[in-house]
Amino acid sequence: MIVAGCDIGALTAKAVVLNNDVMLGSEIIQSRSNAVQSAVEVTDKLLKRLDLAYSDIDYCVGTGYGRNIVPFANDNVSEISCHGRGATWLVSTIRTIIDGGGQDCKAIRVDDNGFVKDFRMNTKCAAGTGRALELMAESLGVDVSQLGHLSLEASDPVVLQEPCCVLTEIEIRYLVFEGRDSADIAAGINDITARRILHLVRNLGVRKDVGITGGIAKNIGVVSCLERALKTTFVQFPVDPQIIGAVGAALFAADKAGKLHSLA
Questions:
Q1: Residues 204, 16: Cα–Cα separation, whole Å
Q2: Domain enclosing residue 78, as ranges
Q3: Which of 75, 151, 171, 246 reaches 20 to 30 Å from 138, CA-CA?
Q4: What percent of the chain has pLDDT over 70?
Q5: For residues 252 and 81, is the Cβ–Cβ distance under 8 A?
Q6: pTM (2 decimals)?
């Protein structure tokens, strides 16, 4: 049974195809201005690489902020549920998941089967999100992908204090103007991002094992700050952490396709 998950996020669109619990492939692209276009482009690209057609897909579930308008999806499931399910399928011991997404951040606790027991998410501020990291990186004058490794070169990390990411951008520009070392500023950016995320995680409560999904998981600086603060080492996923929501969506698609098959 071939199923698909399509995760349309604010910054990236992801697609995953499974065949009887085996991942056939995955794809990530930058999100387009139109969510439908994002869904079609990322899935077209993956299916072409796998030499599959849409008619080969028995069931598809959409997730992410654009989950309701994936044109070829049979159903949709929240990204919170999908990250929980996907993470646990990949690492069965995980119980707490930090999803560092483009437009929001979530702390999720799951049961032994990967189903959500509780969660917290930021709803009033962009601090702690991928977009906030992008904006702060722009203020520093580097690409967001450089922040993690650049911060490892810091000798005297700055401590950013502004409560709002917009004000933090101004603070960063001032530090650049003063001539502060870029690595020290990068370390400060990662630290303040981690502090925003920690507020959610501590409010939820931590149960091991812990893992981080989403684009922020690729920033070694933020991950290191979180691991030190939580006094734990995060699990390592065997796939790109950005596709885990799409993996979960595909697993839900397999569930739903199986139920339909049993009714036939």
A1: 29
A2: 1-91+242-264
A3: 246
A4: 96
A5: yes
A6: 0.92
